[in-house]
Amino acid sequence: MEVFKKLPVIGNVLSLLKWYDKEPLPKGRTYRTTRRGFYKFSDIIRTNKKGQVVNLARNTGTDNKNVAELRSSFKTKGVAIKQQIPFVGTNDHLYDGFSRCKALEEEGYDGWIFNVVEPKDGFSWSDVWAEIGLGANNHLPSKKALVQDFITGLSHFIEEQEITPTQGECVDWVNNIPHQFNQGEVGKIAEKALKNHATYCSMESFTAAEVLANVKAQNTFTNRVSIIPLNISGKSSYFQRGVFNVLDQISSPKKDMNVVYAFTKDIPADEVAEVRKAAIEQEEKINAQFLELFKKYEAHKRSGRPVEDFKVLDIRYWVGQVIGEESGFISRHNSKTP
After folding, report:
1. Mean pLDDT by 10-residue block, N- to C-terminus, for the chain (338 residues)?
2. Closest Cα to residue 118, out of 181, 223, 52, 27?
3. Would you say the C-alpha torsion 42, 45, 49, 53 has a positive or negative sign?
4. Smallest Cα–Cα separation from 16: which of 61, 81, 68?
5. CA dist list (Å): 69 to 7, 60, 104
6. Which has the closest alpha carbon to 286: 315, 246, 336, 331?
């Protein structure tokens, strides 16, 4: 049965330490716990140079839904003292407790108590991160590490090795971390991580600027040809932007034709064919929409109405936003606003 203690008063977090006096320090295969101690959140390294939270044990980072559940649990139940507190390294990096730290910060706390750990001889901080971040997540409420989280962690491990591990070594890596998977699932985790590694090594990464430079270096297009790089890696906004690039060039009297070069970014080789297939479907959908537009344009002309009255985009109303002067919706064609 879990024993819950009411959250301590903000500013008196050190009182938590006495709750754990009789509890043994956690032990791990890759790490040793040197002590329990208080750390200010501002002194713990949780982000990279860009300010992004680096929760490498999670494929999708820190789960905000779990953070909200933790806040609710802290306020209604308190702290489950039979479960492990978060882990911080002697290098000041946070290794477990990203969600709890965020939840406690949102509750107004400036720090908490942590298990302070260091790697055992023969192990790296990455090994510690994998074991703790994937296997030590046993607080309430917690979000268990999923298959994709283990694939991500194993992929990091594979990338750090001078020689690519075997399938068996990857299976051992997973089995050395507490998990809830059967051995068939473990085998698939190892297989997927190894495939990720192979495709990572075989894929060349491009940006739009690099594609443009490569096309200009390898082709002899004249200045009247517009080269349009198109990132087809899943976001519809990329296609929408590409369409507007094409429209801009079509209306330019200095251009005779457009040539679109499609590329992917951060897509492994085994997924490229699927991404390209989806791009063709998106292309066909966009072209069908333009065909419908042309049909409506032809119908407009046949009706005898002036061609200039046909509009693709036609703003009908302004939203009234000037306090004391406007309200509701204002007809554009009856207002004085240009």
Report:
1. 78 84 87 94 83 55 70 85 88 89 91 94 87 65 67 80 87 83 90 77 70 83 87 81 86 87 78 87 92 93 89 86 84 67
2. 27
3. negative
4. 81
5. 15, 18, 12
6. 246
Which tokens belong to 49?
Answer: 């140079």
How far apart (Å, rounded) are the C-alpha atoms in residues 119 and 127?
Answer: 8
Q: Which two tokens stand for residue 330?
A: 């204002």
* Distance of alpha carbon 243 from alpha carbon 192, whole angstroms: 35
Per DSSP, the three-state class of 71 is helix
Specify the long-range contacts of residues 64-72, CB closer than 8 Å, at least 24 apart. Answer: 66/99, 66/141, 66/142, 66/143, 67/99, 67/102, 67/103, 67/106, 68/103, 69/141, 70/99, 70/100, 70/103, 70/141, 71/103, 71/106, 71/107
- Mapping DSSP to helix (H, G, I), strand (E, B) and coil, where does residue 69 land? helix
